Amino acid sequence: MNTSSTRPRYRPYTLKNLHELPPYDVIPPHRMRDIKLAARVLPFRVSNYVVDELIDWDRIPDDPMFQLTFPQPEMIPESDFRRLRSCAASGHESVAKAVVQKIHMGMNPHPAGQMDLNVPVLDGELLSGMQHKYEETVLFFPAQGQTCHSYCTYCFRWPQFVGLDSAFRFACNDETLLPRYLKEHREVTDVLFTGGDPLVMHARLLEKYIRPLLDKKPGNLSSIRFGTKSLAYWPYRFTEDKDADDIIRLFEEIIKAGYHLTVMAHFSHDRELSTPAVETAMARIRATGAQIRCQAPLIRHVNDTAEVWSSMWKRQIALGAIPYYMFIERDTGPAGYFNVPLMEAYRIFTEAYRGVSGLCRTVRGPSMSAGPGKVLMDGVADIGGERVMILKFIQARNPAWVNQVFFAAWNPSAHWLDDLQPAFGEKSFFYDAEYRRMQDALRRRREGVAA
Ligand SMILES: *Cc1c(COP(=O)(O)O)cnc(C)c1O
Ligand code: SF4
């Protein structure tokens, strides 16, 4: 679109070229030393756009955009960090590596281990690179989209970005599998391309995966979604990159083929919606006929106030986007640093929700993407003399659970579904027994295929 010589060019900063960071000297030397250590534990890559246009360097280290992208020493348990610092200072490199590994193992690298169980089977073979957990929606992880323009310090996919998991373990590079699977699974109406960030891929590669869906219209597919944080981390993806026009054309083609197209945009803070670059990018996407739906987890130190969320939702509406989900952060990585208890999340959500018009209230949350499904922390009540937390499935392994409420004993310090006990002295939640049977069946299927 813009052919001037001042066209912004993507440039990531990592540990290797951190000394070239323009505001390098703004970070006090002792803090910089600790950030470099923390970046050996947590994923670190930050785009020049985030550095130049989003971070408020007068407010570091508390600035939310800085907390979002720069690993901080406080994110690592204190005694572990002290050990790492002393090994590094005394040059004991092999010991330092072992300390990093120990810290990784202490950060719950594979929460729930359910990813494996959701891998679908086609003609007796496991389709790694796809997940099919909810009837109507398949997730597709293209192999070349398993990275991001910047990394979030809180990302639950951190094991893949720090090299603990092979990026390809859950990724697919065969564009024929998805259409074949859709043909056999007529219950699937939605495909969600996810990652990492599938929109880091070159337009040509993205097209390789999309083209078969346009040519063959397999099964009952009616919606295509791209999960992405490009609008927040590199909005020039849609306006200035060499293949930006090709991406936009591909969006137009998807819509011309009769699909609904949604960009599932990850926005963590209203500042990400404040630049001319993001405004232009969103307008360009909307002009193709695509929708933009917005979601993010609630994160301590990044977006843990009602004001941030209500401004975000209002700004999204003003830019033609649709508020979609507020998530509870999973229990992995630096969870202790980022976690917000369910009751506090509920309070923040409610305060934010009360302050906006009905157009913003398409948002749902706070929601936990747990093993049995997406569970809302939906209210508090006193029933029969007992204070209870009201939970509700908005998505579930068994469609019969969707829109069902259930009750947990009052627990203001709970962070996740696993921390909760059924209310009224009951032994289990209504779905527990069936969920266990489903898991056993999935495990048996998995073993049968692997054998
Ligand atoms: C959230 C999610 C989806 C999409 O669910 P929608 O409610 O349709 O947005 C699909 N698969 C998995 C595993 C998910 O967590
Ligand atoms: S953009 Fe998404 S996948 Fe990438 S680091 Fe952030 S949360 Fe993780």
From TrEMBL:
InterPro entries: Aldolase_TIM, Lys_aminomutase/Glu_NH3_mut, rSAM, rSAM_sf. Transmembrane segments: none annotated. It comes from the Bacteria. Keywords: 4Fe-4S, Iron, Iron-sulfur, Metal-binding, Pyridoxal phosphate, S-adenosyl-L-methionine. Its cofactor is pyridoxal 5'-phosphate; [4Fe-4S] cluster. Belongs to the radical SAM superfamily. KamA family. This is Lysine 2,3-aminomutase. It comes from Desulfobotulus pelophilus. The lineage of its organism: Bacteria, Pseudomonadati, Thermodesulfobacteriota, Desulfobacteria, Desulfobacterales.
